[in-house]
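In response to reviewer comment 3 from the previous cycle, which asked for concrete evidence that the modeling workflow produces usable outputs, we include below a single protein chain processed end to end. The sequence was submitted unchanged, and the resulting structure tokens are shown without manual editing.
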Amino acid sequence: MKKSITLAALGIENSTLHYQLTPAELHRITLDKNMGQETDSGALAINTGEFTGRSPQDRFIVKDEVTADKVWWGPVNIPFEADKFDKLYKKVISYLDGKELFVRDCYACADANYRMNIRVINEYPWSNMFAYNMFIRPTKEELRNFEPEWTVINAPGFMANAITDGTRQHNFAILNFTKKIALIGGTGYTGEIKKGIFSALNFILPVYKKTLPMHCSSNIGKNGETAIFFGLSGTGKTTLSTDASRKLIGDDEHGWNNENAVFNFEGGCYAKVINLSKAKEPEIFGAIKKGAILENVVLDNNGKVDFSDTSITQNTRVSYPIYHIENIQQPSIGNNPKNIFFLTADAFGVIPPISKLTPSQAAYHFISGYTAKVAGTEAGVVEPVPSFSACFGAPFMPLHPAEYAEMLSRKMKEAEVNVWLVNTGWTGGAYGVGTRMELKYTRAMINAVLNGDLGLYNYDDYHIHSVFGVAQPRSCPGVPTSVLSPRATWNNDEAYYTTAFKLTNAFRKNFKQFEAYASEEIRRGGPQRYAF
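The workflow returned the following structure tokens.
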């Protein structure tokens, strides 16, 4: 790219700038600097260093006139003083000035009416390659007069001083909505880059553009109907939306506008690769080739990846441009959303593998955002632990969860969308006793919904779960009837109901923080029975 740029306005005047390098160039530079390895598939493997995941406790938002009265402040949205941001910004710029830097102009939001131009400045070449993969790539013509609206400044090698800089520790990710800057330092984990922009859009779109931002994946069928998949990490959001029979719109971040269109924020995918196999996830496996970046995986001497090796982290990842998937929607926009799936990996094994939700139940479960942690994922976790993340993405939501839930509820009613709760977790018992739900059954259930095979709700075809109150189908093509009833898979009614009641209590305890904000209709959407 021949365009000449300057970062002088940011205070960077003495750096060597590499602007808009190709993935192949960034791949080569990374290898030349001994910052990565090439795998046998041609992908680039890198190690993100100390941090192999996001650090939610070190994510801040500058509290100023723009945000003070709008952001839901607390442990998720931690306030940061404007003057401390300015001082820290100057220190980061001083650190970067004079270094070799990698600069990329790109944008978020596939719908031109919501497009946000972004300039990403990286200390490392592979971080810039990640930005190429994950954001939308402008054409040469679009770059001619490109003016960035937001700037991401990414300095993994800069370590903050918590005492003088106002951070919690040496790493930080700070959003400044007045200056439109995402400032990231002390961490090489690339997810902070994309989630910084996602968090910004989760404020900008609902506040200024009356558009619902969603932590979800989506795809579209031949009939033109869009399906949306909400879910936290590890619930199957990327896997289930990447289906050879449907066109992928996006795997993680979308907006739903007033024109009833769903549009991808991103230009790529960021998938977990723990235990990845070609047999179970052929599309994702095939996307790991030249241009893809594998994070924190273990290679043998021949460059072959051991996807089962979690010695570095369980959060092994791959990023790749969306065009690495063959069957994609271009542009990444879908109309007529007709089915929404809430994915949960229930490690207690008590939630039905698929069930239909009423509008009030949908709003309740959306605000709750339930999944579960299992033994081994975190220090001290020895049995399943309920994990709730409001709107299936609380760490990225600057507004109160009820605001997003009300927007979703209104859109679901207007579009007459069916909402389904899907348990991709355990069956036949809790984690350690039961087994993980087979992917082929989950796919069959979702395909049955999309094909219209589960039909409309009626008492002959559906059973109301006695604890959770959701409607579970009595039969489903391609799925043994016994699998559809979680109680039946346990072969121990007393143990099943004891565990189910335990989980409903966790739901109720978690929801107390939202009761004052939620309508009576939403409150009625929770579990029907609970134990004292």
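The mean pLDDT is 94. We consider this sufficient to address the reviewer's concern, and the full set will be provided in the supplementary archive.
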